[in-house]
Amino acid sequence: MAFLSACSQAPAPNANTKEYQATGEILALDPAAQTAKVRANKIEGWMDAMTMEFPVKDTQEFKKLRIGETIHAEVVVEGTDYWLSGIKEGPGEEPAK
Which candidate, 34, 61, 81, 91, has a CA 20 to 30 Å from the CA of 67? Predict the structure, then answer.
C-alpha cells in the first residue's frame, strides 16, 4: 500500500529544477490528462500573463481543484517539463483577462 501512495506524489525536484510563484483562476479541469486550464497572471521570470493548461502531477492536489477558484501555486520547471505544485486556494490578484 505504501508503494501506491508514493506513486501519486509529485517527483522530487533536482538541481536543474526551477520554481516560480503563480496566481490564477481555474477555467477547466481534465481528469483524464490530470491538467488544469488556468488563466494565470504574469509569472515573474518565466512567462507573461496567459491562459494555458498545466499538468498537476500530485493526484491528491488535483482532486481538490475546482473550476472558478483562484489558486496560488509553484510552477515547477524541469527542462521542457512543467507542472503545478503546492497549490493553495485563496484570494489574490484578479487574474489577467
Answer: 81
